Amino acid sequence: MSTYPLLSLAIWIPILAGAFVLATGNDRNAPLARMLALIGAVVAFLVTIPLWTNFDIANGGMQFVELKTWIPRFNINYHLGVDGISMLFVILNAFITIVVVAAGWEVIEQKVAQYNAAFLIMSGLMNGIFTSLDGVLFYVFFEASLIPLYLIIGVWGGPNRVYAAFKFFLYTLFGSLLFLLALMYLFIQSGGSFSILEWHKLPIGLGPQIWLFLAFLIAFAVKVPMWPVHTWLPDAHVEAPTGGSIVLAAIALKLGAYGFLRFSLPIAPDASHELSSLVVALSLIAVVYIGFVALVQADMKKLVAYSSIAHMGFVTLGFFMFSAMGIEGALVQMVSHGFVSGAMFFCIGVMYDRVHSRQIADYGGVVNTMPKFAALFMLFTMANSGLPATSGFVGEFMVILGAVKLNFWVAFAAASSMVVGAAYSLWMYKRVIFGDVANHHVAELTDINKREFAILGMLAIATLWMGVYPQPFTEVMHASVNDLLHHVAISKIQ
């Protein structure tokens, strides 16, 4: 195992790179700002690679641990570590940061330095969330990550960007306040410790566990987002710039789901069992009902936004089956959704940059003028539909397989939603891409350039790799998932 502080580097390299980009000043130095941002993003990604290559797959505990005293008076520490559950998300986050910096290379022309710096800083803060083992440190990163995304939507978004950014911030802040109360209770119960790993071992009665679980549920459900606290997401996606939509779907939605595995299940295991039917019900509503909502959307971004809610429903469904197949399938779905949803939003951004419309009715026959783009867009649409041999199939298949062991009708409802997913994805693709050239805007389209092809190519390779050969992704999480399930099962017995 590496002796270098890899987790600190994964957090602070993008944050410091963002500070250097900000220092380039106004838009006269935009080329320098873009180059510094890309270099910072690439370096931040490279330092995460040893996390995977040096990872001990037989060890379900925390690895690459860093521990230093931060605020000794309150026993608050700078405590970092990753296990098989969190490691892949650090790498995914760093990879997506390269994508979003490249995605805005030619499109963003105003406040270029500030735009790129916001993404770099947010990348570092999100890595802090995935690696924090101290409750206060986690909460600081958890809250601070809202600020760059709020600015990205509010400054570089669409006509209703201020409303969307404000709604996003209020929803997530409300959940976070309940989360803070839960952290204070755990601090008192543990005798003055903010160690998340120590909180996992606390002997808490069922009554307090239920209150803790509900506080966690509200905080993380807003982030996922789960039905019925999902309404901020379509507005945020529609108004966000392309890069904002990519990082929101690919990474930000994963923070809430990750919270369930780091807090809800291990800290309140008995309450998790008692209230699992509630979470399963909410997840099925998201999977089935939101799929039908996506089917009637006229705006491509809104359609993919609702699609994200439905796909994340599979994630929360998998978590509360209490089986290795379900949780690992949910984790695979989270990583896959990062690739596929990021690619879908980038494809929509490619068309929007040329036509300045996201309405499905304004397109038609795009394949005639953009054949390379149409081929790649087809791959991601199929992955979004859950086509076998793409990453979109693997996670959903594992969750459905786990659901069969839990309850046939739960599995049936989840599986039927894949038909709806294929319907809205392929229906959108048909109307936008196939047919005769619909209007002069489509007739004047130019195919993707080298930059756009490189971005979509990277995402295509990741989507196919995970779909054809998912073992490298599943083997790293297996020991950690088994340890978590053993902890939850033992707690239930006691």
TrEMBL record:
It is found in: Endomembrane system; Membrane. GO terms for molecular function: oxidoreductase activity. InterPro entries: NADH_Q_OxRdtase_chainM/4, NADH_UbQ_OxRdtase, ND/Mrp_TM. Keywords: Membrane, Oxidoreductase, Transmembrane, Transmembrane helix. The chain crosses the membrane at residues 6-23, 35-53, 85-105, 112-130, 136-156, 168-188, 208-226, 246-265, 277-296, 303-324, 330-352, 373-394, 406-427, 453-470. It is a multi-pass membrane protein. Residues 134-415 form the NADH:quinone oxidoreductase/Mrp antiporter transmembrane domain. Its EC number is 1.6.5.11. Its main location: membrane. Belongs to the complex I subunit 4 family. This is NADH-quinone oxidoreductase subunit M. It comes from Dechloromonas hankyongensis.
